[in-house]
Amino acid sequence: MNNYKKFGIPDDFDKLLPELKDKTLRWETVCRSGTEINNNAKISYYASVAPYSYGNIVLSPGLGTNTDIDPLMGAVTFWSLTHRYNIITINTFLGQFLEKPSFEMAQKNTYNEFIASLESCVKFIEPYCINKPSFLIGHSAGATGLVDALNNIVSKKGKINFQSVILFAPWASKEWHDYFKKIVCRHNEPHNPYEFLPIINMFDIEKYGSTRYMPILPDFLDDMGKSVFKPDLMNKWNTHITIVVGAKDRKVSEETLHKRYEELVKQSSDKNRFQFIVLPNAKHSFIQIHKNTQSVINLIKSQRIKQK
User: Fold this and answer.
1) Three-state SS letters, the chain
2) Is the pLDDT of residue 306 over 80?
3) Angle 133-134-137 (CA atoms, 0-180°, nearest 5)?
4) What are the tens digits of pLDDT across the range 84-98?
5) What pLDDT is stored for residue 294 in this prediction?
6) Which residues contact 29 (CB under 8 A, 6 or more apart)?
7) At 137, which CATH number?
8) Which one, 131, 201, 256, 301, has the greatest CB density within 10 A?
9) What is the mean pLDDT of the segment spanning 213-234?
């Protein structure tokens, strides 16, 4: 039996979450990337069940998942909405599954297009975050993409209105990307995977009762892996930045993440804005958050007391 209760989450929260989201949904909109491809992303705003919220939590999920099926995002959403936080979700094409994936669709789902979509979404959301403490949470590719999107914004002299940015397992290794491509190709021969990668998610299969696919080209992973770490731009976010890694994560390098954290601190005049956390029992997915010594929920709670 899971032990979510000590964090204020019932063990069957996943069964209660759809109704909670239906009751608290205030608006949804489609946000375009603004490029020639002009891919779309969906932004959803859920209001806390309490009349006065502590602030906003913005969620950016990873590759081949979305906030409707991702267990980490689901746990954060349930706790937040029942503990005086509003939730804003960003769901890009990385979580849009199709019954019949195609090379033509994969061609449109590039890493640059992903960054453009996130940048457009962040700019749309930020006016809602000016007068309330707001925390931006990205996981895996959703975290890596946010770094590049926020860097693009500040490089154009834009302002970041978030108080804190929490990056769960960003910057997956090249070794993992190469391994992942081989795994997808091996299990998806009927879809000509050597031209494109048809990615599945077991939680999507479970929810909809059929196998669906999110198609990208192999170049997406290559381009994401080549994303340049720019601590000078990250320091210009003027936010608290927390990097979180699971000690049992085989997709990202704890050593690499810690070195990047040290570089961020080194280049900053305010060392207290940065935090590096290793969750000893966590894997890449952070699914079983109740097993971690310092829980994801406690991390979120700690953000509220920070001041710029």
Assistant:
1) CCCCHHHCCCCCHHHHHHHHHHHHEEEEEEEECCCCCCCEEEEEEECCCCCCCCEEEEEECCCCCCCCCCHHHHHHHHHHHCCCEEEEEEECHHHCCECCCCHHHHHHCCHHHHHHHHHHHHHHHHHHHCCCCEEEEEECHHHHHHHHHHHHHHHCCCCCCCCEEEEECCCCCHHHHHHHHHHHHHHCHHHCCCCCEEECCHHHHHHHCCCCEEEECHHHHHHHHCCCCCHHHHHCCCCEEEEEEECCCCCCCHHHHHHHHHHHHHCCCCHHHEEEEEECCCCCCCCCHHHCCCCHHHHHHHHCCCCC
2) no
3) 150
4) 999 999 999 999 999
5) 42
6) 42, 43, 124
7) 3.40.50.1820
8) 201
9) 95
- Identify whether 195 is part of a domain: yes
Mean of pLDDT values over 155-179: 93
Q: How many independent structural domains does the chain possess?
A: 1
Would residue 1 count as lying in a domain? Answer: no
Instruction: Tell me the backbone φ, ψ of residue 151, rounded to 5 degrees.
Output: -60, -40
> Is 30 a domain residue?
yes
d(CA 275, CA 303) in angstroms, rounded, equals: 11
Q: Are 202 and 288 in contact (CB under 8 A)?
A: no
Q: Which residues is 136 bridged to in the sheet?
A: 58, 165
Look at strands 55-60 and 85-91 and give their pairing: parallel
The yes-or-no verdict on residue 303 having pLDDT over 90 is no
Q: How far apart are the first and last CA of the chain?
A: 40
CB 71 within 8 A of CB 62: no
39 in a structural domain: yes
Residue 12: pLDDT over 90: no
Q: For residue 81, give its domain range.
A: 17-303
Q: What is the average pLDDT across 179-197? A: 71
